[in-house]
Amino acid sequence: MIAIKIILLLFLLHQSVKSEDNEKAKYRLNGNLIPSKYEIELTVMDNFGSKGQFYGNVKIHFNTTVETSEITLHSDKLKFEPTNIQISFDPPQNSIAVSNVNFNTTLQMVTIKTQAPLSLNNSYVLSVNNYEGILDLDMSGFYRSSYKNAQGESEWIAVTQFQPSSARRAFPCFDEPQYKAKFDIIMNHPENYHAVSNAEIKSIDGSAKLKKTTFKTSPIMSTYVVAFAVTKFAGMTASINNIKHTIWSSIETIRDSQYALSISPKLLKVMENFTNVPYTISGLTKLDQFSIPDFSAGAMENWGMVTYRETAVLWNPYEYSTQNKERVGTVVAHELSHMLFGNLVTTKWWSSTWLNEGFATFFEYFSLAEIEKDWELDLQFILEEHQPVLISDCLEKAKPLTNPDVFTSGDVSAMFGTTTYSKGGSVIRMMSLFLGEKTFYAGLNAYLEDRKFNYSVPEDLFSKIQEKVDSSNHLPEKLSVIMNSWTEKHGFPMITVKKSDNDLILSQTQFFTNVTPPTKWYIPVTYTTSDEKKFSDLKARIWMLPNEPETIISNGWKSQTNWIILNIGVSAFVRVNYDDTLWTGLQQALKKEHFDGITPINRAQIVDDAMNLARASIITYERAFNVISFLQKDTDYYPWYSAFRTFAYLRRRIDRESPLGKILDKYIQRMTGALYKSVDFSNNRVRHVDMLKKVLTLTWACQLGVSDCVSQSQTLFNNLMSNNKVIDPNLRSVVYCTAVRSTNKNDNWEYLWKKLEGSKMASESVTIISALGCTKNADILRRYLNESIKENGVIRRQDGQSVFKAVISGSPQGVTIGLNF
């Protein structure tokens, strides 16, 4: 009887799992049909700004992989009747009758049933004629947006944002990344507008009331990188290396596109030098880049027609900060990296989105570093990508890079987060370092050539790089085995180092998260000691293996050795903890002159590791604060960037008006004394990283109430209000926020609000939006939040979340007000 019950229970469990799998599978296309080409004709009437409509026809050429009587594809918010649908053989022969059409709005799919089955391995054409679509205002699909021209009148544009799954809002399609095809696109639009798409213009016919722009056939690509726009924008063009580069923006802002236009050709050339794969492999001879007034993402890598927020592509030295310039450079580099990683070779499904976004994040720093050589982007990568994602990736809710549990639109959207971008880029950087530059780039070339115009999975990447690995790489296992330990499970290891006589004993555990069974990794270990002080060689000296409880560095400690540092250059995606003796050695070394030769980036690593180990209760805060006490003498950007992030965490969790909160703020003020003296409010041009340091330091000093900082900010702001004296763009964020925060009067806030109402520059608007959240006046904060959701208000749709963020981060009371709102 017991045996029968067990068998019955196992059967029910199996059926339950099977039912759950079927439930998830319904969100995916079944692979029975493979598209090869789309013919799309869309019409935008001259009243599209007020009506918000467009009209379309589409022909989809596809092949069958099974015999079937069903055609299932994606369609969302498109209106058409079964009578609008036609199916025929390809090339055209007899038509195939439709028996039934079923729309599933939840799955955003339409299923067309045919009276006779479609035969195996045959070619067909599905036509959907005279359908209607919505040009919404929600910055998704084919949508509309507006801006003010020089006369203060509204000008409308229609533009696309399809990633990850909104092409289906513009035309019925197989809207998953693996279903790649060619696209022939025709745009009918008002005669005083012009149209742009992925491919070059083939012809323009202006004989009718509507102008007809026909484009050449696109490369083979996924639906999510299809793009088109109808605008009155102006263009600035440069033709270099047989590629026509054009930046498009409003006539009022086009002058600010020069920097983006100057670096775009260089970035394409850098990517070609890295991978030996040119942009022109696409068959495209042009690259259009659009500055969009309302844009939900930072930018979008549509092949041959990249779209951006204005702040991500526009810059000039008189009104925009150094940080703005870096943002433009890195975002353009990110998107142009996608021309190869994402467009030419595309992740098969969003479960491994890091194959697209991880590489783009990696190259946004390391390709731009070849152009802006004094920006130290290789080190900035560690501060801005590597260290922040260590904080989120140790949480139990974190997901692995390669996540098999991705089905719904919510699942897909969740993949576009810090894990995919920042951890993806960090793990790729780690791989590049332990492989060496030559092997890494030879492997990428092999991967791109093998999978061009196709989709890929992680094993495709690892196997092609493996072909280029030789004995000099000294890998402990196949590359796929090593890398799967980093991509298929969330989290990362903490290496603990203990001294035992002359040996150093290394062990690994998963940082912070309690997982059963514990995850173990293949870890490339770099290190140096006080005897060597070699911080430049970032190739692994030893490997820690998942099946070994300990790794021993024999005779690693000499009689004259005072300290050891693991993970030099922050080369591996790990944290490092030391025993008491080794922590004390580092603590003493960092107090010596020139920090005993320990580099700024490894000082940043020590700060970040020590404070986060204390946060996880692995070491005490007393130990951590003792270790970072060297900061009193440190005036370098990198250790302080890491320190301020850890201080921000503590300040968010301690009431600033409490005794402990006041003690913490006084401690940070005391620690920053030398740092504050190393900067000033002058407009002197300084090295790029020094300007970043100046802004960071002054932001914190004024936030902590350093009287000199507050006073100088108020003076600059008063001169702006009274005498219209221009403030250095680099200092505006500090001065505006301080002026609003340091007074109970509303005058400063109202002045900035008026300035926002009249602002014509996106970067200035962003700075003001952030500063307005710095007020401590609860009534104004509530008013500000309400302004953010007004239809046709001062705050643009894309900036609503920025207002909320400004309020909850601007002051302690802002959190409660924001959450209540």
From TrEMBL:
This is Aminopeptidase. Residues 1-19 form the signal peptide. The record marks Y421 as: Transition state stabilizer. GO terms for biological process: peptide catabolic process; proteolysis. The active site is at E335 (proton acceptor). The keyword Hydrolase applies. Residues 259-486 form the Peptidase M1 membrane alanine aminopeptidase domain. Residues 35-225 form the Aminopeptidase N-like N-terminal domain. PANTHER family: AMINOPEPTIDASE (PTHR11533:SF301), PROTEASE M1 ZINC METALLOPROTEASE (PTHR11533). It is found in: Cell membrane. It is a lipid-anchor; GPI-anchor. Keywords: Aminopeptidase, Cell membrane, Disulfide bond, Glycoprotein, GPI-anchor, Hydrolase, Lipoprotein, Membrane, Metal-binding, Metalloprotease, Protease, Signal, Zinc. It comes from Pyrocoelia pectoralis. Belongs to the peptidase M1 family. The keyword Chaperone does not apply.
